[in-house]
Amino acid sequence: MQFKGLHWIEASAGTGKTYTLSSLMVRIFLKDYLPNQVIATTFTRAAAAELKSRIRARLLETQQYIDQCLNQSLDQRALAEKITQLQDPLLKHILQKYRLKLDYASSRLKLVIAQLDELFVGTLDSFSQKLLREFSFESGKIERANITDQASVYTEQLVHDVLREWIQAQPQHVVDYMLLCGRLKSAADYEGLVNTSLNFASAEIQGIDQAQLEVQDLAEALQNLASINITQIEELKEYYDGEYSFNFSHYVAGSDKKGLQPLFTVTLPKLIEKIKHSPLEHYFNSHLAALFNAVFALYLNQDGKLRKSIFNKAKAPCTPEVQDAFFDHPVIRKIKAVVDAKLNFEHQIELVETNLKFYLVQQVKQRLPQLLQQKGETTFAQQIRSLAEALQGERGQRFAQFVHTRYPLILVDEFQDTNQDQDDMLAQIWRNPKWYARGCMIMVGDPKQAIYGFRGGDMLTYNNARDDVLKKQGRIYSLRQNHRSVKELVSVVDELFQRQPAFGEKVIYDPVIAGSRPHPALMDRQQANPAPLRWVTVEHDQDESIQIARKIRELLNQGIAGDLYFDHSSGKVALQADDIAILSTSHQKLDQAQYELERIGIQVNRSSQRSVFTGFLAKDVAAILTAILHPYDEAKVKRALLTRLLGYNLQQLIELEQQGLGQFIYDFDCIREMWVNKGFLTAWNYCLNLFKIWENLVAKRSFDNERHVVNLRHLTELLSRQSERHQGAYMLYYWYLQQVESPAKRDWEIERKLSNAAGVKLMTIHQSKGLEFKVVFLMSADQPPKSDKSALVFATQEEQGIEQRIIAIKHKDIDATAMQQHSERRLAELNRLWYVALTRASYRVYAMLKQPTPAKEGKKEAAPKSAGLNVWRLQAPSSAEIAAAWSCDEAPLTQLAAALQLEQVQEIKIEAADFPQRRFYPRTKTSFSGLAQHLPAAMRSDTLALASEEQAAAADEINQEPVETEQEIVQVAQPIAWIKANFQRGTQAGSFLHKLFEYIDFQASHDDIFEEVKRRFHNDKEFNSDVLLVDLIAKLDTAKGSATVQEADIFAHMTEWLKDVLNTPLHDTFQLSALSTAHYLSEFPFYLALADQRLFIQAIQQLFEDAGHPIQDLNEAATARYLTGSIDLVYFDGQCYHIADYKSNYLGADQRDYEKTNLEHNMTQSSYWLQAALYLVALHRYLGSRLQDYDIRQHLGGASYLYLRGMQGQAGQGVCHWRPDAEFILQLDQILGYFELKK
């Protein structure tokens, strides 16, 4: 295959389609395309996930094999020999093509694997969503719409509205007669019709002419019937009680040999008497329906249609003249007139009903997109429809070309299940005649497995697309090697389908052969794979589910006895219940089989089809939620207490009432407050633990305990997820009540599998598609098609040489050709359904047949019906040898065998290994704030790894807010400067001060500092500098009274403050004003490497404890491998390198609050000792790598913590300088570094 143009792959069941597609993907990526240029779609999300994982595995396998060849340094001869020995066709092809540039192939695959996350593998629905979002401007769909899960609700709403509009628009008599005839139903009865039509949104729906409902003829005919008298009836005595009475057809006369006597002597007079007054009203009286039907039976058969004949063949004495006289009699003419009027009226009312259905379908189809757009939502089907519409016209052509350029290659799996809208979208982009040759489209499907017609899949779409590919010189490929089943089963099933290869709808069965995949033989009494296809004919009056249960018991007994096993190379593996599946076309038959299996003790594994919102558990959760939101309503609290979740019975509740419900009311009220303030999940988990709900749920032994636990977890998860979408507790509560009241069967609400899900698998044939089982039982394999209850008729019509799908509302006058096409479509899909069923097994199939009902004495023996698998089974074998060798008729079992027990296996006691002290962790990072858990919650970072590398410069500052009385305020002897006391507190204000010190020159003049202050207030908007300035002006204005305050006043105060800081001694007599720009560095960021082992926090705490500077408890940082931070100031005083950290912490209004003792207390409270030590370790490592002949004792200085509000130019005020011992820094570096430290 060359990856240009159009390619069509037909892959029969079990032919290794996923393996082939993943191999093709390797070739695609090796040649012209990268993952972000390729699209792969399939039918379900599960299939998409499997396909992507298989593509990744195939890429890795290929890349590793090429690397292996490169490492072996093979010459061309050795490589050619290796190629001839290869069995894998992909590896063989790649080595042949790239044998001279294997290094390129390896590098290319490594690149592809690194970018594989950019490959889109999903459903066509999710791909359409991706396109509309990625190309919103080009498509014209700029407004983003969310996918709704309320589509059925909207459809129900629209059906209700449209039906009400239709009723209001009709004359009253039409509505009345529709109701009397049972033709006008509730909105729910029309939803199935509308939903089915929406699945074929692009198909034309044929309407019919508007019918008029007239009852005058029926009323007149009934009036005439009521005017008949007894004398007129007796004139017909020769026909019902005379010489002509035995000449009527037995269908008319009946089997009781009484002829028409009861009709004319009892039924007709009684009816006339009943309807004498208001005959039309009595006609619609259900109590008289039996009398009317008995009279109408003279002319109408059981189906309500006119009889072909009433008399037997004309012969003496009942000659043609005698028969004509009967029909010409006034009584008979009046009965015939009523029958004709009845049929005409029923025809009219059927047309009215058909018009109603057409109106509903048409209006909902038009209004649903508008309703979804109003709500800002859409459905996957509507999204595909919108995308297909956006691709029409000149603008659509440009849009399609954009998409094709961005994604030149697409692979569409399960193409037989695509609907018309999806194919229209694909055709406009990748089968466009203008540019299809520049890209590549690969369509993969199996027409024999197109069984999802009820979802919109249409073989007409498949056939038209295939014809389109052929017209554009596309290539057709077929996969015909079945790797799923053993050779014997492949041969016999292939022989069966070759008997009648035409499945219908242009689907022809192509022969297949067994693939090369090895299968361990199924040994049955020392025979390998004997008779893999077995026909079991059950007596006509027996239940096939009983026979299936008996047969499975026999198979399991054989497995236990060692007579039935799989002969693996590693040993014998007995057949188990998990290897068996029962498939059926209906859930009802599966229910019967499940009952019989469980009755005899065989475990069953059947996926749930129930919503988690059904059953007592969902209602009990609703009761508890009600009590939480209404804690003072005792009735609601009592209902919650009586749930199984809380575990109280009625007697216990009566006893509680005597003591009072105050404690429960208080508890529910607390949970409500927690829900409002902290969110649903926190409150709900607290409720579960408070009332011991998990324990109550499993307090009594029951087979359903695990189901209840899983469902409660499922409900908790759904409520938690919805709490993020619904604002407020009551919105979430009402959403939950709505689900409980109207549970659906959406994927996310279906009950989940249990952990012990094992046993015989039961599923419908539709559910089994794509799955594989070792032994399969097919229920009712000769079952004829069910009666067609569909309200729609699917036909075709040709337009411009292409067949198009048309849909009509079913009614009696519908075109016979259309009905024939509809019936052929149903039968063709049923044939494909049985093909899917028969190809699920890998070793053996049991097809359950039903013996025809015995004919009555003297009657011809009934023949088996040509339905189900009998469509092929009753045909002459295409190969009698294969049919005789690998299939057989197996006699049904007459009794149930006793169950054999497995031998007791000696239990081996298993003990868990000791939990390792050292473990591997990913390389993440932490910081001082991440370790210091005692800081306010708003300042804490993730305890394991900071998500953000940047942190506010003042994020670690804590401001003390002492409560001061008036007397204490008066006693402030040395108040700090006004600007220091009134400058705002908090992270933003502190970060502004940090930024100010970062930009000023420490040796600048007073005027230069004034200008820099002014510049920072006007420019540092990220720190709300404008808000800070306005606030300071307002405070100063209040302090001065009537004086007008200007910005310059604030700038002057700030300048004086900065000068105080610069002129305050830090250690000895050293001041910041002594530093030139060459001797200091502001904002010094660092990444400090930590040990490749768990960080021992306790060792750090003990180190500080020994040094006389205890620190608060710290967070664990088990996964941290880097410690990040930023030092405010690193400076050189001429002898040593020191660090300084600016703190805008507010410790009080008195200057004495900033003396050394108070500062050291704040340092301990805030764990600044730890911060200073970490910064010194970082500086120590930096100097050690940059400074020649570095000596820690000579070159590393100390840490000065500058409490800016307390610095006023004098020593001992606002400055805490700490220079730890060199041994302290080295020991901390050892704990943090790469040296192994033993506990």
Total domain units: 6
Large-scale geometry: elongated
Rg estimate, integer Å: 43 Å
How would you classify the helix and strand content by structural class? alpha/beta
Subunit organisation of the chains? single chain
Average residue pLDDT: 87
Distance between the termini: 64 Å
The main pleated sheet reads as: 7 strands, parallel
Task: Give the total of beta strands.
Answer: 32
Question: In the CATH scheme, what's the topology name of the largest domain?
Answer: Rossmann fold
Q: Under the CATH scheme, which class of the largest domain? A: Alpha Beta
- CATH structural architecture of the largest domain: 3-Layer(aba) Sandwich
Write out key terms for the chains shown:
alpha/beta; elongated; Rossmann fold; six-stranded parallel β-sheet; 1239 residues; 32 strands
List the helices and strands and how they pair.
Elements: E1 5-11, H1 17-31, E2 38-42, H2 45-71, H3 76-85, H4 89-97, H5 102-114, E3 120-123, H6 124-134, H7 136-139, E4 146-147, H8 151-169, H9 172-180, H10 188-198, E5 204-206, H11 216-226, H12 230-234, H13 237-241, H14 250-253, H15 261-274, H16 279-283, H17 289-296, H18 320-328, H19 330-374, E6 377-378, H20 380-390, H21 393-406, E7 409-412, H22 420-430, E8 440-445, H23 459-471, E9 475-479, E10 481-482, H24 487-498, E11 502-504, E12 507-508, E13 513-514, E14 522-524, E15 527-528, E16 533-538, H25 544-561, E17 564-568, E18 571-574, E19 580-584, H26 587-599, E20 604-606, H27 616-629, H28 634-641, H29 650-659, H30 662-678, H31 680-690, H32 693-697, H33 705-723, H34 729-741, E21 760-764, H35 765-768, E22 773-778, E23 792-799, E24 802-809, H36 816-838, E25 841-850, H37 870-873, H38 880-886, E26 887-890, E27 924-927, H39 928-931, H40 966-970, H41 978-982, H42 987-999, H43 1006-1019, H44 1025-1040, H45 1047-1062, E28 1080-1089, H46 1097-1106, E29 1120-1132, E30 1137-1143, H47 1156-1165, H48 1168-1186, H49 1192-1195, E31 1196-1203, ...
Parallel strand pairs: 1-8, 1-9, 2-3, 2-7, 4-6, 5-24, 7-8, 10-13, 16-25, 16-26, 19-21, 19-22, 20-21, 22-25, 27-29, 30-31
Antiparallel strand pairs: 11-12, 14-15, 14-17, 17-18, 23-24, 28-29, 29-30, 31-32
Cofactor: Mg(2+)
Region (Nuclease activity, interacts with RecD and RecA): 922-1239
GO cellular component, one term: cytosol
